[in-house]
Amino acid sequence: MVSQVHDHVPPPGDQDPFLDLAPPQxxxxxxxxxxxxxxxxxxxxxxxxxxxxxxxxKLRSRPVNEVLEEAERLAAAGVRELLVISQDTxxxxxxxxxxxxxxxxxxxxxxxxxLCEALADLGMWVRLHYVYPYxxxxxxxxxxxxxxxxxxxxxxxQHASPRxxxxxxxxxxxxxxxxxxxxxxxxxxxxxxxxxxIVGFPGETEQDFEDLLDFLDEAQLDRVGCFQYSPVDDxxxxxxxxxxxxxxxxxxxxxxxxxxxxxxxxxxAQKIGGRLGVIIDEKNxxxxxxxxxWQDAGSREKNGLTNQPxxxxx
Length: 314
Ligand code: SF4
Hints:
Bound molecules: iron/sulfur cluster
Structural class: alpha/beta
Order of helices and strands: HEEHEHEEEHEHEHHEHEHEEE
């Protein structure tokens, strides 16, 4: 039957049966109202616990006009929140020498600031993930303070002891992170910071771990995940001496979680009585599942904004 239809109405010669039915914004696995926007692939760092660079290669940034055109198509398709992702968002454009692209008839520099400024023009929430605390990140904080992009940074610190950060070969390990966070909060008091940490990394002493707990006290991060170190096949860290014993890892993890849970509770308590813009992810029989500027959907079950009796806004 299909061949008879084609006899009367031949398909265009350049038709691709696998791609032509895809919508202009591409095929996404996320709900209609939010989407991930991948700006680069690969990574120029060599963290000793990670094998991503050996699997995915060096950083390869997408041309800025290509990224913005995709974001524009997503906005036109009804997306309300863009989650910007990569292995190292703060390094965007390094490999292409920050080559200026043209979008909507104007030049846009392929760096973190240029990209954020342009994305802000699309009228969606823009949430930055996997940012390292380099000095140039300071430049995007005013955009957050002005409400152009979400006052939210996902910064995977992983540790705070300089000795362990060095063993981990972490990017931006030499930066004065606490000072930087304080400066950011002075510019943008609503800034919300999410992070992840590893406890029990090879060679971590009780003093290193206490340095980490002190960092949590000082940094007052909003949302934090913590993992006990476990070796990954072929990672450099596997050859480091002085592995931490499993019961010690467990004990440190529990102490870490206890401290951070109290900090997160206190940070949440400061928001009581305030007003927040939200996006409703889902309505169920009991209420609404929401995302706000300081939380994405991944945390919604844990931080007290689930099943609100009434929507707080859009
Ligand atoms: S920054 Fe480090 S942990 Fe992240 S992908 Fe690169 S090497 Fe891996």
